[in-house]
Automatic annotation (TrEMBL):
<comment type="similarity">
    <text>Belongs to the UDP-galactopyranose/dTDP-fucopyranose mutase family.</text>
</comment>
<dbReference type="Pfam" id="PF13450">
    <property type="entry name" value="NAD_binding_8"/>
</dbReference>
<keyword id="KW-0413">Isomerase</keyword>
<dbReference type="InterPro" id="IPR004379">
    <property type="entry name" value="UDP-GALP_mutase"/>
</dbReference>
<protein>
    <submittedName>
        <fullName>UDP-galactopyranose mutase</fullName>
    </submittedName>
</protein>
<keyword id="KW-0274">FAD</keyword>
<dbReference type="Pfam" id="PF03275">
    <property type="entry name" value="GLF"/>
</dbReference>
<feature type="domain" description="UDP-galactopyranose mutase C-terminal">
    <location>
        <begin position="152"/>
        <end position="349"/>
    </location>
</feature>
<keyword id="KW-0285">Flavoprotein</keyword>
<dbReference type="InterPro" id="IPR015899">
    <property type="entry name" value="UDP-GalPyranose_mutase_C"/>
</dbReference>
Amino acid sequence: MSIQIKTTDILIVGSGFSGCVIARELAASGHNVIIIDKRNHIGGNAYDSYDQNGLLIHNYGPHIFHTNSERIFKYLSNFTEWRPYEHRVLSVVNGEQYPFPINRDTLNQLYNLNLNEIEAAKYLERVREPREKIRTSEDVVLNSVGIDLYEKFFLNYTKKQWGVDPSQLKAGVAARIPVRTNTDDRYFTDEYQAMPLRGYSKMFESMLSHPNIELKIGVSFSDVKSTYSDHHVVYTGPIDEYFNYCFGKLPYRSLRFEHEHFTNTDKLQSVGTINYPNDYEYTRITEFKHLTGQQHSGSSTVKEYPQSDGDPYYPIPNDANEAIFKRYETLAKNENNVTFVGRLAQYRYYNMDQVVGAALSASEKLIDRFKN
């Protein structure tokens, strides 16, 4: 005997990865879903569009999909075809471009050496500054590569990106960046590395293409909260905003984007992204044709300028901010008719695949709950 699922009306706040995945899963289970977004488009920060020159760009900075999860890759494959793409990054130090993350070629080029893999490992072992306890991002890097590489590649980039010294960030931020003794110059080494063939926005459109989903863009939660008071709410926005900042604002890092187009230019850069850790106010320049594979007579780029004010992009991971979040999390646990999920709602520095995983998990729990 099959279990009859009771249809539930659901309001989803935010149409990024979290909101779109949950909307699709709940709609496919027979629930009526309304998804809103205060912006005038879907996709959250992963939104992409064609600029006035006809080039597909990522409006809110580069989003490179990578995962080791076959389940997540197969799930997203229901909504998009893929273009295989392995991201590569160079970092500019003293006017020269070096492979980044640091690998054996970086060491050889920087220090005019000719190390093999074993010698590169011995070199790093010799220059590293061992830390008995790894508490901060500074500890991670010094423990791995020592002071010179730390100062050349990490210190100033981190200060620009996060607005604080690496010693004030949790270890997990720097731990995301590997150090290699081989010559692998890929930024990621995940099993699945690819870009949505027709872009992220088309993928999200496919996710939301279901008769049980109603989309409303340009709509803020505060404007419709009372209208949908009988709906279960899936909230993917900033958790502190939901509770009217009663414990104060959680610190987020924002970004300003400077998009540029260059005519009659095949490619400006040899790789997708070039980092500028020690020069300029921006952190990096990304050239989109590398990511998309698009053929075009010109090329479009984006420079990223980190800043404190503006839309929230990155939760700032340190103990003080985590303590504030825990207070909000306690309130969230008492909101029986609200599910909080996503980078901003859970104050977590998630990758895209981690967001999808969290959204699928939340969807499963909600479907089981609504059965009862």
